[in-house]
Design goal:
heterotrimer, A mainly alpha (about 300), B alpha/beta (about 230), C mainly beta (about 260), B: about 230 residues, alpha/beta, Rossmann fold, C: eleven-stranded mixed β-sheet, 18 strands, about 10% helix, nickel cation binding (chain A), Urease accessory protein UreF (chain A)
């Protein structure tokens, strides 16, 4: 059994739907699915939630874990997590926050979902800066003034609250299903106890998603090192514009980014911190084409109760 | 839209920002009509912004934009996810963001009005969002409503009882309403109006004007103690 | 030289590893195929100037196969890649899954159009597909992928795809699809009642939204399709459908809409 992480109570606060950060107004596609009649009751809802968790939920969890890990590393090394790794224009924390945020952009094809994610991220950072004041959150707010993507904001807030990356991932996975579940209760008048039963049934999958999210960080750090040894073209500075089209900066083809296992990452520093950024390109990117269509349909519909 | 001020995150710090006025009340009581009336009366002399919290559409925002009482860009709509009271009381993040966005884009402003979605008698604004609040009732809800009280009726800085022109038609006794409201409101003001007849809601506009002037004055004085140069919201 | 179409994959017993290459070069201002290396079952044919067909993808890959295709579009050249038939992914005698890897680079001022016929996931298959696209800043791309969940009336095997596209090293689109988990596939969040999924990435500077960071550009949507402007210089056309004909028709509508989203 692992040591008790110190952030358990903070995790409860962070994941609580009463956290005043604007989450109550987002249905994560559920409102549009209800309008189209693809969610009509608890069974549809259960499948919707399972699919959402396996796709958007897992991606959010991985991004949140990465953000939390990175935030902890910047907190440990105020000059920047790569301050000891030699001169690198991309190593200042603001540039790295933007890089991680760009990874969230690349995993969110739907502009409606990107906008909803940025709005929620901005509101979360606003509230979190007052609830858990920290230099990391100030840095993130400055680095991405239009609002960081929600999972990135959640990961940073988790670090500020004292959570570890696993807890950040768990909060993100949890958020990815509780918002739509609550929205469905309100929109369809479902029995809230029945819906909470659905969420309870998802509990093991939530844990798995958080584990998989953290495993993807570790796996890809390992991959990054292996790639460096073999081909020498991978590295934390993969975002530099000097690379031409022939340079590879993508995840290895052989990567097992979705392995699940009971692995936890603590706040990384030392050699792991050096490789932090190199893990980001290979983080999970599970897409849900139906959610994309729902999000865009919702945005175009003027009659709605929820922002997304 | 989006606002990321370093200085405005704490609503409790009012220095150099606009007065934030919440307007709440039940569905159909005339909140949107009152906002339009205030824009008409105050627009010429004040720098205004409006945030609406519509329930099911952006109808209120659209109504105000079409009414031509204010530059449409100065009206932002916030969606509240089925829970209008949550958005003004428990989780005010989206409303605060909208208010700060207006101040960032158009600031400095004198007054930002936040109109709540139509809700029940228990809905009031968080102090984190609104510095002062008006609760709007109308006579057609029956003359017993003030007696029933509720946080909105009791604690609002101003209680507006609208649609007085309908009183004879619905058999509402304004004297009873006035007496009952006074009884539960501990001296806080009550104004009767018919925005249909007085499209500028003069009495309410006067009350708001004096509020804004007091707000500015006290903030200017506070400034003198803490800062050497006046700053604006932006 | 002629290479006969290989015999049906199902009759093959040993799994194969194949590495095929297409590379262009600029010669007197025109595109020339500098390398066209077939490696059966990946067989390539030049069918026109700057046009290559994959001719032998009618059946297979089989479990245990590992097929790699490298595409290198040199600066200033134009390449189009198509296939003559659908790719049918089958289980094989090997318990290992099949793997298809495509690595493509598109140089400065170059363009690549990749529009093969659909990949059909037969029952029992276990397939992994990975595409890595590296685009230079001013490269142009049209990259279509269509996946069919099983032959007619058949439940699909399992498939995992990963798609990574970068422009000058910056991530443009990273997407994975998981197909074949009944608990997820049929849910209203992922594929709904669709039996085919398709997407086309259309990228180039004409879709660069960098000037428009705060307000996201709007998507164009229709019945079962969407053309979604990405955060970077590109648009993703996406479609879900009940069959391949409907899928192609929806995807083409989305592609047309995507073209209209270009910034003039």
């Amino acid at each position: 059994m692992r040591d008790r992480p110190t952030g358990d109570a903070a995790l409860l606060l962070l994941a609580d739907s009463r956290l005043p950060a604007g989450g109550h107004a987002h249905s994560g596609g559920a409102e549009e699915a209800v309008r189209l009649g693809t969610i009509t009751g608890p069974e549809d809802l259960a499948r919707f939630l399972r699919g959402r968790l396996a796709t958007a939920g897992l991606v959010s969890a991985a991004l949140a874990a990465a953000a939390c890990e990175f935030a902890a590393a910047t907190a440990d090394h105020p000059a920047g997590p790569y301050g000891h790794a030699g001169p690198d224009p991309d190593a200042d924390p603001a540039a790295l926050w933007r890089r991680l945020d760009a990874e969230a952009d690349a995993r969110t094809a739907s502009p409606a979902q990107r906008e909803a994610s940025r709005v929620q991220g901005r509101l979360l950072v606003r509230s979190a800066r007052r609830i858990w004041p920290s230099a990391v959150l100030d840095e993130l707010a400055k680095a991405v003034p239009e609002g960081a993507h929600h999972p990135i904001a959640l990961g940073a807030a988790a670090a500020a609250a004292g959570c570890d990356p696993y807890q950040a991932a768990l909060a993100a996975a949890y958020n990815s299903v509780t918002g739509p579940a609550t929205a469905a209760v309100r929109l369809l008048g479902l029995d809230p106890v029945t819906v909470h039963r659905l969420l309870a049934d998802l509990a093991p999958a939530l844990n798995d998603a958080a584990h998989a999210a953290c495993a993807s960080l570790i796996d890809d750090v390992v991959h990054g090192v292996a790639q460096n040894g073999a081909g020498g073209h991978q590295g934390p500075a993969q975002n530099t514009a000097t690379q031409d089209g022939a340079k590879r900066d993508d995840p290895p083809h052989h990567g097992g980014a979705t392995n699940s296992g009971p692995t936890h990452t603590g706040s990384a520093d030392g050699p792991a911190a050096k490789a932090l950024g190199s893990a980001w390109p290979a983080l999970p990117g599970h897409a849900a084409p139906a959610l994309d269509l729902l999000a865009e349909g919702h945005r175009g519909n003027p009659m709605k109760l929820f922002v997304s | 839209m989006g606002a990321q001020h370093d200085d405005l995150h704490d609503a409790a710090d009012p220095h150099g920002r606009a007065l934030r006025l919440g307007i709440g009340g039940p569905v159909g009581s005339g909140k949107t009509a009152l906002v339009a009336a205030l824009c008409r009366s105050l627009g010429p002399s004040m720098r205004l912004g409006v945030v609406t919290n519509d329930i099911y559409t952006t109808e209120d925002a659209e109504f105000l934009r079409r009414a031509g009482v204010l530059d449409p860009e100065r009206i932002l709509a916030v969606q509240t996810g089925c829970c209008p009271h949550t958005a003004i009381r428990d989780d005010i993040a989206a409303n605060l963001d909208a208010v700060e966005t207006l101040e960032e884009r158009f600031g400095p402003l004198d007054l930002v009005i936040v109109e709540s979605g139509g809700d029940n008698l228990t809905a009031t604004f968080s102090r984190g969002l609104a510095d002062r609040q008006i609760f709007v009732l109308d006579v057609s809800g029956g003359d017993k409503v003030p007696r029933k009280g509720g946080p909105g009726v009791i604690t609002a800085d101003l209680l507006v009882i609208n649609k007085t022109d309908l009183a004879p038609l619905v058999g509402a006794d304004l004297t009873v309403m006035s007496r009952d409201a006074a009884a539960v409101r501990d001296g806080r003001p009550v104004l009767f109006t018919s925005i249909r007849e007085d499209r500028s809601a003069h009495s309410v506009a006067e009350w708001v004007t004096s509020l804004v002037n007091t707000w500015k004055h006290s903030n200017d004085q506070a400034h003198d103690h803490t800062r050497t140069t006046p700053t604006t919201a932006a | 030289m002629t290479t006969p179409l290989r015999s049906p994959a199902a009759s093959r017993t040993a799994s194969v590893t194949a590495r095929a290459v297409i590379a262009t070069e600029l010669s007197d201002g025109r595109t020339r195929l500098e390398t066209l290396r077939s490696d059966p079952p990946l067989t390539l044919r030049q069918t026109g100037p700057g046009l290559v067909h994959l001719v032998s993808t009618g059946a297979g890959p089989l479990g245990g196969d590992r097929l790699e295709l490298t595409i290198d579009v040199a600066p200033g050249t134009d390449l189009e890649v198509r296939s003559v038939a659908s790719t049918l992914v089958l289980p094989g005698s090997s318990p290992a899954g099949s793997v298809m890897l495509i690595d493509a680079r598109v140089g400065a001022g170059a363009s690549l159009r990749f529009s093969p016929e659909p990949t059909v996931l037969a029952a029992g298959c276990s397939h992994r597909m990975a595409v890595r696209l590296s685009l230079a800043d001013d490269a142009t791309l049209f990259w279509r992928e269509e996946i069919v969940f099983g032959r007619h009336g058949e439940r699909p095997g399992r498939c995992r795809t990963r798609f990574d596209a970068t422009v000058a090293g910056r991530p443009l689109l990273r997407q994975e699809l998981l197909i074949g988990d009944p608990a997820v596939d049929a849910g209203p969040a992922v594929y709904g009642d669709a039996r085919c999924v398709g997407s086309t990435l259309i990228a180039g500077q004409r879709w660069d939204a960098a000037r428009d960071r705060k307000q996201e550009r709007r998507a164009t949507i229709g019945d079962g399709w969407a053309a979604m402007p990405l955060a970077g210089p590109g648009v993703l056309a996406s479609a879900l459908a009940g069959d391949t004909v409907e899928l192609r028709s929806r995807l083409e509508r989305a592609e047309s809409a995507a073209a209209l989203l270009a910034i003039s």
